[in-house]
Amino acid sequence: MASDRLRTTLLGFLLAAAIIAALAWLVGIEDVVRSLREADRRGVATVVVLVAGWVACWGLGMRAALRSYGASVSPWTGLLLSAGAGFANNITPFGNAGGEPLTTLLVAERTDVPYERGLAAMAAVDAVNIVSSVCFALLGFVWLAVDGSLDGQLTGVAGAVIVAGVVAAVAARAVWRRRRGVTARLTGGVARGLAWLESHLPRLSTPDRAALARRVEGFVDDLEQIAADRRTLVAVGGYSLAGWLCQLAALWAAFAAIGEPIPLLAVFVAVPLASVALALPLPGGAGGIESALVGVLVGTPLTTVSPAVAVAGVVLFRVAVFWLPTTLGGLVFAESAVHWLRQSRR
C-alpha cells in the first residue's frame, strides 16, 4: 500500500514536471529563463515573504478551529500545522482531499485533539477557504463589470463561476440538512466495502459497522459544533481571506519582480480560478495550476503580457507557493516521525 502511494506520488511529480516543461518549451524556454534570471532580488524576497504570510494566516485559521474544541494551540503550533498541511497537500494527488488525512495525523500528534475531531476541524477550514476563493473570484468579476471590461471570454467564465457556485451552495446545503441520513448511507457502504476487503485479505482487521457508525457520527457532531460557533467561523474566515490576499499579492509581486507588472484586478480573477486545478490528480495541483494561471492571464483580456512573461511570472510565484510550505512542512513531519519512532520503541 505504501509503495503504491509512493509510486502514485512520483508519477504525479513527473507529470507535473512534464507539463511545466512543455509550457516553457511552447512559449520559448530561453525567454522564460532570461526573465527569471533578470528578476529583481528584492522583488523575489517580497514574493517569499507574502507566501510566508499566507502560510501563517491559514495556520492561525487552523488554530482558531482547533481552539473551538477547547484545545490549547499556540500560534507557533498553528504555523507548524499549516506548513505540515502544505507539505501533505503537495505530495499527494487531489490536493487537500489527499493531504488532509496526513495533516490530521500531525494535528493529533501536536495537539490534544483526537483524530476524528481534528479531521472535522480541517474539513471546516477547507470549506471556509473554498468559500473565500469564490468570494474573491466574484469580487473580481464584479470589479470587471463595474469597470466595463467584462466581455468576450470573461463573460462566459463569469457565468460558469456563478452557476457552479450556486449549484455547489445548493448541493452543500441540501447535504448538510440531510447529513444524518447521508452519513448513515455512507457508513453502510463503507462497512460493506471493508467487509469485502477483510474477506479477501484475512490479515486485514477492520472495525465493525457499529464502531464505524460511532466514529462517523462523532465526526458529524464535531462538524456541527464548529458550524454552531459563529465566533470561530468569523475568525477562520478572516484568516482565510487574509491568506488569500497574501497569495494574490504574491502573484502580483512575482510579475513586478520580473519587470512586467500586471493589473491587480487580474490576480483577483486568475488565482481563485486556477485553484480549481487542485482537484486534478497532481501533487498540490502542480502543473495544472500553472497551466490554468497562464491560460487565464494570456487567453483573456485581463493582461497584455506575452506567453513567455506569463510563464516566467507564474513559475516564480508557484515555486514560492509550492516549495516554501513543502520544505517547512517536510521538516515538521520529519521531526514528528522521529518522535513517533522513539515512542514506538519504548
Describe this structure in words.
The model has no long low-confidence stretch (mean pLDDT 82). This protein has one domain. It has 13 helices and no strands. It has 346 residues and is mainly alpha-helical.
Sequence-ordered SSE layout with sheet pairings:
Layout: H1 2-27, H2 29-37, H3 41-67, H4 75-91, H5 96-110, H6 115-147, H7 153-177, H8 179-200, H9 209-228, H10 230-257, H11 264-274, H12 288-299, H13 307-344
Give a quick rundown of the structure.
The chain is mainly alpha-helical and 346 residues long.
Tell me, briefly, the overall form. globular
* Strand-pairing-aware structural class: mainly alpha
Strand coverage percent:
under 5%
Low-confidence stretches: none
What's the rounded overall pLDDT mean? 82
What proportion of the residues is helical, as a percent range?
A: over 70%
**What's the total count of β strands?**
0
SS field, number of helical segments: 13
Radius of gyration: 21 Å
Seen as an oligomer or otherwise, the chain set is single chain
State the order of secondary-structure elements, H for helix, E for strand. Answer: HHHHHHHHHHHHH
Q: Which sheet architecture does the biggest sheet show?
A: none
Q: Alpha-carbon distance between the termini?
A: 26 Å
Number of domains: 1
